[in-house]
Amino acid sequence: MRWIRTLSGAAAALALSAMMAAAAVAQTWTAPWHDGEIAELAGALSEAWTHGLDPSRYPDPDALRAMAPGRERDALAQAAWMRLASDLVFGQVDPRRLNPDWSAPRREADLLTEFAQARERGTLAQTLDLLAPAHDDYQALRRELIRRTVTPAAPVLVPEGPRLQVGDSGPRVDALRARLHQLGLLERPAGAGTAFDARLETALMRFQARLNLSADGVLGADTVAELNIANGQRVDQLRANLERWRWLPADLGARHIRVNIADYRLEAWANGAVEREHQAQIGARWTSTPVFSEAMQIVEINPWWYTPMSLGQTWLRRFRTNPASAYANGYHLVDLDTGLRVDAYSADWANRRYRVIQQPGPNNAMGQVKFLFPNVHNVYIHDTPHQDRFLDTQRDDSAGCVRVRDPVELAIWVLAGEGWSPAEVRAAFEARQTRRVRLQNRIPVHILYFTAVSDRLGQVRYVHDVYDRDAALIRALNGDLPPLPAAPSVPVEIDENAQAD
To answer: Which end of the chain is more exposed for a tag (fewer CB within 10 A), N or C?
Structure first.
């Protein structure tokens, strides 16, 4: 206390006030728990399942209430509050256990301070509620989990068998019609034996489109599997997606971009609302698009494509065997040591190292524009010459990058934050010259993976688990945890020019 005397009167009073407040908080949160606090905590523990969390991770609420006051009860109560708070803030499972390449930022919280303040204010349960993700999508999934748990409904099963389409009839068609009626996609079922008609085909196509299955109106094995998913499986799916929300930062950015890989969708957000939606193409199963977050720094209009070394091998072979074909597609050979272009017909393949680049044009793999946010995966958002593939419902065929439909409109949205008018953006595209714009106002980009999503009305829509990631996460939530990966021994280099496509 002696040092306070050396301060000015106002500063000394402020310091003394702060010390007294800290001491009061410490005295409050270390004080014995009274019965009212125990009851409040027990109530919060009894609702942990509504967040998709495993109740067995925490003390039994009734047993906690029945304990006699004392140090044992106090220690158990504090440990229970801290564990539930940690699960709500950071998630029950470390995402790196399931994906060693995980690089998205996590939420931040000082749980000891939160606990002390909650006890001081008498808000133990309320603080836990506030520590859970506040995103509307999280709350929608939570409501759906409660509904499915409290009022479970067994699905009308559609038997497996040969593919069914318009004109077919029989018990399996009857079951399909009853199931789609149960899902609210048909107003009323028809009589037994009614043939598969256009009305049933339309309802089936709507179901397939909602889940990002091939919306062909034909009942195949994949569609039967989704139709027959039991209520318990949907509950597990909701638990997995609630956990994924807990892995994300609380603040995604006032102006940001979200890509949901599983939903083949890109959304541009500003001030809590979606301003643009774009269809997306994602990585194929063997070149799956990773989950991560980075800040968009560059927009390159009419870009060159600098192939990553893995993808460039194909074109390096093409240059060695058929240089004319490579040149016809706008590719060039560059010396890795000098950065200069090389004549493929006289290249020194034995002693030199080369890289393949592709000039701007209609065949360029990046299309008219690429959006760069340097990352260890060399994965970015860009246009594509393969526009016809946006007609497909399932669009998982890229080398890892996110290909976006209507990229010029997305560029207009991005560059509006730099003061560009739509006319200026379109003029830059029409100039046919490469233009690289470094953003002064960087935009967070979140590449995510959700198989249960909220629509704008707050209803939950389930989508096909294209990369089969749900099962491993559900097993981890149930206690089957894979080990944490070892830290990489060599840092990964980021090449802001290379794109996976």
So the answer is: N
In CATH, which of 3.10.450, 1.20.120, 1.10.101, 1.10.10 is domain 171-229? 1.10.101
Question: Which residues does the chain have with pLDDT short of 50?
Answer: 1-26, 490-491
Q: What is the pTM of this model?
A: 0.83
Per-residue b or e along 149-173, where b marks 16 or more CB atoms closer than 10 Å to that residue's CB: eeeeeebbebeeeeebeeebeeebb
* Residue type at position 467: Y
**CB within 8 Å of 243: residues ≥ 6 apart:** 52, 91, 92, 93, 473, 477
The Cα-based distances of 263 to 297, 404, 463, 464, 487 in angstroms read 25, 13, 6, 8, 31
CA gap 221, 392 in Å, rounded:
18
Residue 334 bridge partners (DSSP): 341, 355
Closest CA to 400 of 381, 428, 421, 372: 381
Cβ–Cβ < 8 Å for 297, 439: yes
Q: What is the DSSP letter of 164?
A: B
pLDDT given for residue 24 in this prediction:
44
Residue 145: helix, strand or coil by DSSP?
helix
- How many residues are given for the chain? 501
Q: From residue 162, how far is each of 220, 221, 229 by CA, in Å?
A: 7, 8, 19
Domain edges within the chain? 13-132, 171-229, 306-359
